[in-house]
Every structure is written in structure tokens, then in C-alpha cells.
Amino acid sequence: xxxxxxxxxxxxxxxxxxxxxxxxxxxxxxxxxxxxxxxxxxxxxxxxxxxxxxxxxxxxxxxxxxxxxxxxxxxxxxxxxxxxxxxxxxxxxxxxxxxxxxxxxxxxxxxxxxxxxxxxxxxxxxxxxxxxxxxxxxxxxxxxxxxxxxxxxxxxxxxxxxxxxxxxxxxxxxxxxxxxxxxxxxxxxxxxxxxxxxxxxxxxxxxxxxxxxxxxxxxxxxxxxxxxxxxxxxxxxxxxxxxxxxxxxxxxxxxxxxxxxxxxxxxxxxxxxxxxxxxxxxxxxxxxxxxxxxxxxxxxxxxxxxxxxxxxxxxxxxxxxxxxxxxxxxxxxxxxxxxxxxxxxxxxxxxxxxxxxxxxxxxxxxxxxxxxxxxxxxxxxxxxxxxxxxxxxxxxxxxxxxxxxxxxxxxxxxxxxxxxxxxxxxx
Length: 427
What we know:
CATH architecture of the largest domain: 2-Layer Sandwich
Strand order of the largest sheet: 11-10-9-12-13
Domain Phosphomevalonate dehydratase large subunit-like: 1-415
Number of domains: 3
Pfam families: AcnX (PF04412)
GO molecular function: lyase activity
Number of helices: 17
Keywords: Iron, Lyase
Oligomer: single chain
Protein name: Putative aconitase subunit 1
């Protein structure tokens, strides 16, 4: 790889041991990818700290969180002192909500370590957004901006909806990027790699949030890690629908970039989306594909008695919380069911101010932050059957937690929370 003089100096140790380790990791990573150089980034979203029992034990045995960063962010068995981050860096979602730890079955010792980790991250200059949707709470990259982000649903959003540039990075590469402001120049950082590869033609209107989730799940399954271009009459996606579409496509496949001509910034036309390429394959999405996708998403569900309703994957916006409150106000969550709604911590503060948290709590639900059920492996004790409005969550939660899960609309899920039974269906 070709390195600049500044990059060579970091690699040679002129800027400290931690940045030397970071550059060594990025060099090995870039060479493995076939990257010819690094690209400067001023925007990183990743995770640091001890978020699992194994890491917490590692931190205790090896002498603290610098040891965790060295091992798990820099791939270094040698413990080095970690300096403040070099560029603007945001922390993604974590494993628990410390304000609802008891409800999530998390002990006080874990909360103590969580808060210690928060303090450590803040001390390095990392912004404690603690969400899978940093773009909802202040980290909004510009079109063309080179980023280094983890979290599949966030990467696809900033690539396709905002026109920023990032590959789906890992804990190691984002940790190294925080200290160096560099990331390998490959994949979706390169103009030619962002062009469409497959065409998806819609044979039906795609309107509701759940419809967009199912479309995303279908598209991801068909194109895997390629770049779909979606066309159809009457398309009018909102940013929230695109959020759910992208999260689903990144779950069933590995989609990190897509185009919807006339809506996404790099695709004013179909021709611009493909950039001179011809579609490798053409897929059609109509009522039959919608039905098959719905049945696929509900493949684990059998029992109509719902113990647990989880909303907020990706993390809910204030608009989505408002919608739930309209559906829930004046009603009561069933005695045999729990309702957990996940949102960024900053959004929860707005919900507090607007009285939405009170409405949810008076109904018997909980507004949580910093994590979600699949990532944190936090569900109510004894849960056997869940209901969710997220194609991403229904993809992961049954496999991770060994439970049944229903997928449907937000209204279906609120109705299940209130009645304790699943009555949803494809409409």
C-alpha cells in the first residue's frame, strides 16, 4: 500500500505506540483487501469497552480498559496506553440499558462496569450516542464524506440515503480509524463500486412500514452483497421507511448500498444508478413475493399467545414513538405480556419532555435505550413468544434467543401487547 508521509510516521511510532498499532492493523487489513492506499476519514462509528462477560473478565485480569482496546480494537497482545481519539467518533449500541437493568435481568456489577466503560469512552473523546442510528441523533454525514462505520443498518443508510461512503467495518478497523483518521480505500469508498448491479421491478404499491421491511428482506435475499436498483410506479419512501428497508436488506443479505432512482442522491435516473452497467439480473416483487416473504419472516411463529412485544429495531425515532403513543394512549398492556420500546438515549429525553414516556409507562410499557433485545440478549424472563415490527429483529431474535417471533405492523404489535395475543396478518 502507498502511504503518505504522515501515515508512515504513525506506522514508525512517531505519534505513539497506540497509533503505531492502529496503523499496523490498517496496513494488514488493507493489504488483505487489495487496497492500494488509505483514505482520510473524519467520521467514525464503532464500539469500544467491555460489553460482554468475556471482555469484562479480560479487563479485570489484564488491568483495565486500555487492555481491552489494545486486544479487541487494535489486535495487539501488548497493552498500550490509548490516547484520545484523533477524529469525530460515535459509540454505537451497547449490551444493556443501565436505567432498566433490573427489568432486563442485568446485575449491579454489570451496570457498574457499563458506567465505567461509558466514562472511559467519553474520556477518549468518543461521543456516547449509544445507538444503531447515529444519524438520528446528531451524526449526519454529508454526501461524499468518507466514513468508517460499523452496524449494517447504519452503513446502508448513510451510503444509500445520504450518499456518504463507508464499508461495513468491524470493531478493529473502526477502533484503528478513531486513532488515525484513516481507513482502507476500497469497496464503497470508490465511485465505480457504488453503481447498481441488479434491477428490482415492483409490480405492486409498497406503502406501509412493514411493506418496506418485507421488500428489503426480499431484495437482500436475492442480491446478497450486491447493489440493487429498485423501480416502480408511485414509490414515495420516507426516511423511516428507508431505514427499515435498509436494515432488512442488510440482514437477509449483505446489502450496503442501493439506489431508488429519483430518491437516493446518486441516482436521479435509472441510467445514473447503473452508471453505464447493464443489470446482471432482473427481479420482480409483487403480491406473490410479498406473501412468500411474510411467511418466511413468520416461519418461527406458532403460538398466538404473546409474552413480549419489542419495538425499536433499528432504534425508534421520535415520530415512531409518537405513533405508538397514539395507538397505546388510554389502554393497558396485558398482564401476561411486556412491551419494550428501544430508542437512542437522546431521543428518550425528547420523549420525556413530550410526555410520551409517561404515556408508555402508564400503559405498562417501558421506553429503553442503548441496546436492543437481539444485540444485548435481553428479554423478559420466561419469554417464549415475541412480536416485532422489524424484519431485522425477527431475522435474528429467534436464532439468538431460541424463541418464537411474529412479524407485523406496529399496530399489530401494539394490539398484541394490549390483548396478549397475535392477531396480525398480511393485509
